[in-house]
Amino acid sequence: MFRWLLVASCLAATVPAVAQTYENCGKARTIDRPPQRIVALNQHSADTLLALGVGPTLIGIAYIDDDGAAIEHGAYRGVPVISKLYPSAEVLYAQQADLVVGGFASAFAPHLSSRPVLASQGIASYLMESGCASRSRDFFKHIRHDLTTLGALVQRQAQAQHLIAALDTDLAATQALHGSAKPLSVFYLDSEADGLHSVGKNGFITTLLSTAGARNTFGDVDIARLSISRETLLDSDPDVILLADAVWSPASRKRQLLTRDPVLSQLRAVKQNHLIDIPFAHLVPTLASGRVALELAQRFKQIQAP
After folding, report:
1. What CATH number belongs to 2-155?
2. What is the pLDDT of residue 8?
3. pLDDT at residue 75 greater than cutoff 50
């Protein structure tokens, strides 16, 4: 089995072998040559690579979060979807990738798909910095690091700097929108399938909302993820509810719950229709986060307008 994995991971060199060292998750790593066959695990890591202009070197994508058509038709922005969720080790190694980029730590499962085992088979890996165990809460710094590092790995440094400049422009415009009004309280509903799942202080949503001039209703809870009871949410009575729109938990289904549930339907945000849908892949730290913060700031300003 392992001999087959070794054979499957071998790739004929099409460019001169130039080893490159890069930093990821606080550790120096090496790739033997500029990647020619890249697999993206998680939609937002694929979005980053596509924005950098990697072209046909991106050969496969797995785990699409909010594009049902991509799953149905087996292609995301022209790139094959190799697995609806994370691929098995056999499927992953069959791609003969020389670089695997994951969006969340869960992308690199233990055993055959772990980063150490991939490295032992000559396959480099990169985990988006926000997914690193040792990350700080400076998520926009992580985004810049991702763009700079991946841009260098795929030899798209100029495009990486262009994307960083666009991010910073959006963040500056967002800051300029902030007025003296009291920040709106926003409850983020990630999933409703088995309770009301949200994020606390350590989640990116807290940073995103703060950047947009609002506050996470449960941003003082010092954990990343949490589940809220209907009664607790009613007691908090947020000004706005932010709904993640995902294939595994559509915003439309969340709206049905909020409007039909005898407790949740009493929330001010529900009665006033202060519900905002955002695609899930835009609610994690990516190059689009500046634009998302700006759009949220604009929506919040409209809600606050007399």
Report:
1. 3.40.50.1980
2. 41
3. yes
Q: Does pLDDT of 4 surpass 60?
A: no
Interval 69-97 mean pLDDT: 97
pLDDT at residue 192 is higher than 80: yes
Average pLDDT of span 170-176:
96
Q: Is the pLDDT of residue 16 over 60?
A: no
Domains 2-155 and 179-304 share a fold: yes
**How is domain 179-304 classified at the CATH fold level?**
Rossmann fold (3.40.50)
**Global model pTM greater than 0.85:** yes
- Over the Cα atoms of the chain, what is R_g? 21
Provide the residue ranges of all domains of the chain, joining segments of one domain with +: 2-155, 179-304
Using CA atoms, how far apart are residues 278 and 271, in angstroms rounded to an integer?
20
